[in-house]
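Pasting as-is:
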Amino acid sequence: MIFSTFKAIAFVAVLATATPMAYAQSTTELKEDFSRFTAGSESEPSSAINDATGTIPSSYFHQSGWSGYGVHQAGGACALINPDNYGAQLYTPHGAYIGEYEVKVRAKTLASNYRDNAQLTIGLWEDAASQYNQTTYHEPFTTTKSEWREFTFYFNNTTFNSSNLLIAFSTNDQVLIDDVKIGKPTTLTAPTPVGISGFNANGFTAHWNAVNGATHYLFSVFHNVKENENTEKDFLETFSSMKTSGKLPEGWGYKSQSGKKPEFFENSDKGIDGALLFKNGDVITMPDNGGYYTSLEINIVECKMPKNAEEIGDAQIIVELFDGHAWKKFTTIYVDASEYGQDKIFHDFDWTRFVKQDKYKCTSARFRLAGFPDDCALGFCDMAWSTKNTSTTHYDIKDKRVEGTSYTVDGLDPATDYSFVVKACNAETTSPSSAAFDAIGVTAPVAEPAVADVRRDSYTANWQLSPKAESYIVENYDLYTAPADAAGYVVLNEDFSKISGSGVTIDKPYAFQNGKYEKVGLDMVHNNGWQCYWGGYAEGCFVCTGLTDYNISGELVTPQLTLNNDEGRYQVKLKARSMLQNETLIVYSKSTRESKECKINPDDWSTFTLDFTAGQLSDMIAFTSKNHYPFIIDDIKITQNIKAGDHVYTYLNDSETIEEEETSYTFTKLTQPNTDHTYAYRVYGQRVYNDKKVTSEPSNYVTVDFSAGINKTDAAQNATEVARYTVDGVKTSSNTRGIVLVKYSDGSVKKLVK
């Protein structure tokens, strides 16, 4: 069911997210010593105590809810004996194992096992609708017949947000386990930076996740002063110097599980002139000169393999990268053993294209061997890498004590890029540093008054240059100024009636298979600016598909909406249904994360009216599923009470991108605004940093004034005054001084100065 026996020594690298290599003691949340497993013995276990469905009577455990296959009593221990091709498994009771956890277990290879070494794999799983979904958190450990050993497994679950999680102990062999302990590490873990907000020319606000047990944090801001800009250095390490010196080359690090010193290996018969020996549990760290890697190639050789290639089993090489402050999981190399003896003893990896990415940037790399028998060894040879832009770090703020999980920085140089790190603290200890977070942004431009065409079919938007901006985006909006109070003003109404005549039914909808947010075309919706992620459609309605097996939910997102009127209160009406099984539809604000849940089923449509209380001037409403199953949605209507003088902005066009030195853009071929309507615009700044596009917060809205220079016509001379407004669109009285806009019954507008 879970793990299959490996039969080849092939190396496969898989990029993933996991945890650092070392933690401390933990607080126990679940403990099982198997003292109620009284039958059988370590040498002769009892018959299996699970039934065909995996159910095990709760009387065998100190806490109910355990289950598994191939589970036997062994005189105070648990024997896992592979009953078939799917292996033996023991599952803990369900729990909410979210965040960082530590799992301890004692294990030993059963005497009756056909080989001396057996592997026990520990992993985190989700029990969802009778289907076990494995996370990226799992690791094999090699047990032996000679002695009991304690193994420790760590994971940091950010993938599953569920109370239906369990820890799985699995083997394809015969293994004894005992003394299971699961809990949170007691030492403080490093905080996780989550982003920045309020970026401006002189500073920003940094944010990070809270750490369990922390009473405060130490916050630091730094920038790198580069030396020899754009100078690239190449390195090659053959480890040949170890043959005579017996020492690691300068800058390399080595930690052995056995406490032994690093060993040199050579085998000229197989073409191995020199290698650094690499055994189970060993950690090898590459040099760090402060420059980011621009290339990384490693060569792994087989040095010492068992006579029986099956001894390799489910082994791994875990690779982490260092960004100058903290280690991050990069990849796991999975090892398969059947090709041993076929002269394929060299295994090459070229990770150059990855280390150039901002996500994987590093100044060093380290490697740990896991799951190998103790008598096996690999070797590193001919390691090649390059670094660029060696630098020194200058701290602008160093270990500033902060009580909360955010800090606002000011007084910075607008021309310099900054990063921040943070540590968690309490009275007893300080955590390792977080990974460095680049506070890269663009200051929001300042938008200036527009120059309007008197014919009302065009206007020119204007703005000031913004520091670091390499281009600008200008957006055109319809601006409605309410002439009177109105209840239930329709901010957005979408019935997807444009999706008609397709012949696509809700039983078999069409899926876009878009694994990133993409625009929904105006051939499907009435308002510009809709986006979807894993979207699709059926006749007269929209579909969100997702990838259920990978825990990815589809999502539909509205255009930018004005929802700050009526003190942020607004209402969302919709109808929806699920496709495969009962589901929970989540409707939430992208700005505030305020959310509502709706129970939906596949049998019929359900209609919902949802009241929200925290609407923003620029808000977007998203629709997604809680359990990752596809759903269908229709008749979305968003309303809000408005008062006289309230503004409602409606997005009209695709964004227009303007080059760096330009500070204006002319919108043409506009239709004349209706009564109580005009045009408005706002501007964003953009830059590219490490091949990623960075966009500023929006500028202020600017209302377009079409009244200047309008010639009064004969008809206008006979028209009566309807209302007066300030230049920013607020309704006012005839006593107001300054510039006012007078609107007449024929729709014309005149500017007056009092």
